[in-house]
Amino acid sequence: MSRTPGTPRTPRTPGTTRTPGTSRTSGTTRTPRTTPRPATDGPDTPTAAAPTAPASTASASTAQAPGAPAPTAPALPLLRRFLRQEKSDAWAVRLLPRIVFGVAALYTVITLASQSGSAFVAVVTALLLGLALWLLRRRTQLLLAIGVSILAIAFTGYFSAVGDAARTSEDAGATVTGAAAFGYWALAGMALLGAWMVKEHPGRRGITVVLADVILVIASVVGMFLPQAGVPLAFLGVLGVLAVRGSSAKAVADRARQALDRLRTRKASDPSDS
Description:
Layout: H1 55-62, H2 78-84, H3 90-113, H4 117-135, H5 140-170, H6 179-197, H7 205-225, H8 227-245, H9 247-269
Helix pairs in contact: 2-3, 5-6, 5-7, 6-7, 6-8, 7-8
């Protein structure tokens, strides 16, 4: 149908459809066409395609970080590792000789200690001494002092016993008390404690104990022939070493040096000498 000029346009009611084959009259509005959408559970919002990551980023994400530990296979049980004794397994290779030598040492110690009471005491003493030496392995001066003191005690005891035996063989009525050995042992302990009682020791404390023990052994040799002079001579020798090597001797030497310097300055400034 054609529109005649001058006649107003009749509005198109919503709901009326356009029949096929008819031409669209100018002035009539076109209803929007709706297309059916598939029913979805999500909201009716436009979805955008997910951005695809580049290949380099994907390969970098799958690659392992440099600081992360490498994936390893589960470790074998300890017993299986020990029985296999693979050369690449350092733990299993080192453990076998340690176990063998440990069992052998334990059996030897038990056998020696079970022979008699004195053997048991000797074994326990040796174990305690070894433990003390292992604990003091970093303190060389104290370790040196203890070792030398033990040697000094052994030598002085031997020399005093030899002297007592010689006097007994010469005179059957001679009384042997063995007090000299205890005196030497007490002086050895005095030298060891005296070196560490000084708060500010000028020299090495271990060397001080070595010098005192050497004098102690020499005095015990003298005591083999002169029993009355052995212990007093050892006491004076140990006391002299501690005084000379201690801070008191250093203070006395400093004061003497200062006094000599003052006398020299007085003589140099005295006009009567010129």
